[in-house]
Amino acid sequence: MSNAVDYKRRATRLLRWYPTAWNERYGDEFVDHLEQEFAERPVDLKRTLNIACRGLVARVGDFGLTSSDLKFEGESRATIGTSFTLVAIASVLTLNFWSLSVGRWSSRRFHPLPDTIATGILTVTAGLLLLVLMAIVLAVAVSSARQIRRKRARPLVGPSLLAVGSGAFILYAARWLPMELVQYTHSPHGRPGIQWSHPGRTIAALAQSTWDLTQTWVSLWTQRMYGVPTSQIIVNDLLPIALLVLGIAIAVLLRRVELPLIGERVGSAVVALLGVLLGTFLVAFFVWFTVGGPSGSTVFVTEGASAGKAYLIFLVLVAVLVGRSGVRLARRNHLLGRLSISDSSGYVA
Amino acid sequence: MTSSEDTLIGLGRNAGAAVLVLSSLAGGDKHGYALVKDVEQFASVHIPPGTLYQLLARLESRGLITALEADNRRRPYRLTAQGASVLADYFTAQQRILKTGQARLKQSWHLA
Q1: Quick check: A246 and A173 in contact, CB under 8 A?
Q2: CA atoms within 13 A on the CB side of A281
Q3: What is the pLDDT of residues A86-139, one digit of tens each?
Q4: Can you give the residue range of the structural domain that contains B94?
């Protein structure tokens, strides 16, 4: 193999550290540059490490949550997609924490006002968070179906299969949930059923089901289960992975699907809203923890105190990162809007 | 601190390398490899390729340099008027620090 061919092959291989958008913009000149460097110094470990590190930094920028050096097409979709995945994972924790707070509140005889207000805010924010996430999934599903009908399905095939597969797995793992909910609605076995005159009881029953559902997901591979069939234990252990795959698949779909113009416009507001809702939930959770919650050693009793602290840190990070991304995206869109207005009118602001 | 200095300081620990790249382009348009060689010649500093292209992207996004039409696979870069102004402001500030430091060394230590 000639040196030139070998240099080109090595340079192209190093380019894999960088994201696609970066390769499209700088790939050719970068490979040319490296070929000249290889001719001068064929082996240089520091150079390889430098390329790998900077490539990874570029990849982090490609997720759309940090201010990227490269203003690539679809940056706002990348931000929305990554924000969705992070908030979807966070929502499992918020639902679990919410069910914990409601369970605690309903088991008390007397309810101090701060406890009631904090639990109420937790209920509203967790519900809104879930609604926004479901709206995003619905928008992606409808847009994907339209795109498939227009015979432009090729880029959607992979992520769609992953989303459907992981979604089906999650539904299978939670197949007992409808039966549990039926117990509350049809009042067999002495359960009260839905009493619309006392919605608090219904909410408490829903919280109990939510806790039963999310606790397996939250207690990552740490829960001892006695009397549970091995097949069910395997399914439970694979659940967190299935959730992650579903989140990533939806994020990839969000980057590839042809969204209507309104979807592009409201994207920044949706990301900011997700950040604000998560931030409000966290503030309310800390208030609840102070005024109405259990002591520190018993709040995360199943998953362990260290895991509980790690979850709270994760939630804070996601809230800050997503909220900040929403504001950055809104500023960018505002600037682009002003530029397009000045372009169309021929007037430079 | 002027806004020009802010622009360079905003580049973090790459600010030093950014000054070298802008100084090199102040002498004329250059593509990546020619830029590295020029910096090596006048500053005895080697900018690794990963750092160089991250820097070029940042300087371009801040409007301090602009990419020209690629000649085959090599794309030359040009210093913009804004980039020249930022570089000039930076040097003025550095010269002020240099003169003050030198004068104090001379006064107290009879050096420089």
Answers
A1: no
A2: 33
A3: 998 899 889 988 988 888 887 777 777 888 888 889 999 999 999 999 998 898
A4: 3-109
Across chain B, which has 112 residues, the per-10-residue mean pLDDT values are: 63 84 95 94 94 92 90 91 92 92 90 71
Quote the CA–CA distance of A205 and A202 in Å, as a whole number: 5
Cβ separation of A29 and B50 shorter than 8 Å?
A: no
CA angle B54, A74, A89 (to 5 degrees): 95
> Whole-angstrom Cα distance, residue A58 to residue B66?
20
Instruction: Decide if A96 contacts A215 (C-beta within 8 A).
Output: yes
**Least CB–CB distance from B49: residue in A28, A37, A71:** A37
ipTM of the complex: 0.86
Nearest-angstrom CA–CA distance, B75 and A258: 32
Overall number of domains in chain B:
1
3-state helix, strand, coil in chain A (%, to 5): 80, 0, 20
DSSP code per residue over B14-81: GHHHHHHHHHHHHTS-B-HHHHHHHHHHHH--PPPHHHHHHHHHHHHHTTSEEE---BTTB--EEE-H
Long-range pairs, A160-166, Cβ under 8 A, ≥24: A160/A249, A160/A253, A162/A245, A162/A246, A162/A248, A162/A249, A162/A252, A163/A246, A163/A249, A163/A250, A163/A253, A165/A245, A166/A242, A166/A243, A166/A245, A166/A246, A166/A249
A33:B58 CB<8 A: no
The CATH number of residue B74's host domain is: 1.10.10.10
Alpha-carbon A51 to chain mean position? 29
Q: Which of B36, B52, B73 sits opposite A32 (nearest CB)?
A: B73
Tokens (6 digits) for B67 = 């990419």
| Interface probe with B: pick from A23, A59, A69, A335, most Cβ of B within 10 Å | A69
Per-position b or e across A252-271, b if 16+ CB within 10 A of its CB: bbbbbbebeeebeeebbebb
